[in-house]
Amino acid sequence: MTEKIPTDIQAHVARQRHTLKLLLADDMHKLAQRCQPLMDQPQALEKLLQKQFSKRSFFKYLWVLDHAGIQLTATVSRKKLKTEQVGRDRAARPYLQRGLSGEPFYLSEAYISRHRKRPSLTAVQVIKDEFGTSIGYLGADFDLRKLPHTSKLKLGKKGWQQMKGDPAIRGGLFAQQRAISAMDEKIDDVLSLMVELMVAQGVFHAKLHFSSSRATVWLVDNPYDYQILSIDELTDPSLCLAFPRREYFQQATVPPKKIKKVFRQFKKLRFADETIYLRSASLNIVNGMIGLNFSCDGSHYVLYREFLDKDNSFWFGVN
Asked: Options 3.30.450.20, 2.40.110.10, 3.40.50.300, 3.40.50.360; which CATH number does 8-143 get?
């Protein structure tokens, strides 16, 4: 079995977890040392835990367990004590298993919290007596919204990604046939207009929905919103009057001349086969990525250079 290589985002998450572990471990270790002489005084422990919220804003809950994983204190938050948690058996919880096996500090994998349904983490620090014997556990829950973000996400080069879709659609693939859409009937005019919008009207990301005869576009002037264009708008050249004239986007990585070639290839994939055909396609001129969704519900994400290098024989096994 080949080793699975982590994605850029997964690698960044691993680095972020490592940094958080270093940050939290020191605080948890120091607090556990202060808990050690109070293990037979639950109320004193709760007062100690309450004081921590004025020092560290990112704690969500703090609690102390005995050596067997039974909760000694209330679950302490910034505003209140959850006294009903006293006596709770946490021994079976995954985050405590590492502590019970001897690991002095453990930061759990992220999970969705039971009550507020938010991404969270739990840290467990072993509490030891003066002889080094484990006598309990200090636990802390963290809301990922509150934890400090220690580094900027740096994405590497994007590669070809292929993803399977709904198996029910794939199962009935050969029982279907492409229906001529309104966009199909005006495909050349639509594509010419889309080229103009991307080259001269400030559209940096466009998605064409061939089967439903519409397009979704994002503009440099308003990148946080998108416009849905109907087939009537897409076949009316005066649509260009609706958008201000813009020089070709400075951050674009796709040469303007390549845009027409990309759309020409979209057309080929739309009409090459009556059973396996392109349902929708997108182009982003900033990152150079193309998205394709076929009638089999398979999706591809590929850089425009690789996309233009492939002909119909690659996609369908025919010339």
From this structure: 3.30.450.20
